Request: fold
Amino acid sequence: MPAKQVFPLSKLTEAIENVINRYCSKVVWVKAEIVKLNHYPHTGHCYPDLVEKKDGKIVAELRGNIWKSNFDLINEKFRQVLNEDLRDDMTVVVQATVTFHSVYGLALNILDIDPEYTLGELAKQRAEAIKKLVSEGIFEANKKQRLPGLPKTIAVISVNSSKGYQDFLNVIENNPWGYKFHCKLFPAILQGERAVTTITAQLKRIEKHQNLFDAVAIIRGGGGEIGLSCYDNYHLAKAIAQFPLPVLTGIGHSTNETVSELVSYKNFITPTKIAEFLLQEFHNFAQPLRENLQKIVTGANLLFERQETRLEKVSSSFGFLTTRILDREKNRLTSCRQVIHSGAKGILKERNSELKNISTSIELLSPKNILKRGFSITRKDGRIITDAGLLESGDIIETEFYRGKASAEIKKTN
Amino acid sequence: MGTKITYTEAFDELQQIVTDLESAEISIDELDSRVKRASALLKICREKLYKTEQNVLETLKTLETE
Reply:
């Protein structure tokens, strides 16, 4: 049995290194996903974990190295082309060589990364996120939430040090109309790779107390435009779309609207615009109140004026009408007096003439007037004789004429 | 004669006398007393009317100055 040949480990690794350097020293373009960038700021080097996934499963994995000088150049290109830092969860096409180090082992030494590919990849992810949200029927969900007439308690997802947050508070708290808002800050990282997890975590916290709040505002501003592709993240956009309160976004950038902004209840260019919108909601509520108050005042005044005019009319016609009544009574009294006067006189006159007639008749019927007309009265023993049968021959009768009397003796009766 | 009689009562009575006079339904026996009554009623009405007129004019004057 031949004696065993034992090599020190370094000899083996040296051999491996030789093989790899001889056969694998070619510079190649490789497509991979950066699971974790592992950037060390104090040295400036990166040791990204690179993988390839198929149906969500890792089918290849390799560590990478990006030395500081390369990383600075690559990251600058990314910032210019993508508005993003190189970060976790990016799919990249890298220019690299395979290296082997006795201590650190196998690695992909990354010389360059093509930002254009990643840009396309991000756009693809964005489009996919939108498509997925639409197909799930939740793209418009948050827009259908109801914002209360007076949105006064606002859960703010931001950072205390953010200029945008300070602008927002400034406008809302110093509004000259005295509208009162209550803002509660839920601190989160608002850009870069950790934004998705911290913002969704805060949304979950707010959701637990959703009864206390009227709306959520995601506010960022003054932080430059790097690292905003997190707002295109499907999970963050979904959390916003499905949130049970209206979510207002004021992320403050000049590029295309991100998916999170598209699905939000309402998106604003700046945090200041959110504040102005909320104030406008208060205005919209207060305006009809002010108008109604004015209507009441005007209406009341009009009623008063109308009644005053009526009273004036009544009082002015009063004098005229009263005088008319008084005049009418005067006239009635006058006519009464006249009627009494003429009536009484009339009655007197009538009775007078009646009396006169009667006295005339009486006069006409007196015996003297009859005797005057040739009649005479015959008496016997002082008694008036109207029947010749009562007389006998030899009776003495006395005849009275108009003037004088004569006695006669009856000689014969018939 | 009671001062308690109202203008309307006085006037109604006066009117009755006038009607009676117009239809000559008053006998001579009554005529004197009826005319006397009418004259008294007329006096009452005139006085009441005058008083009322003065009061009303006064009140109207305060209405205008208000």
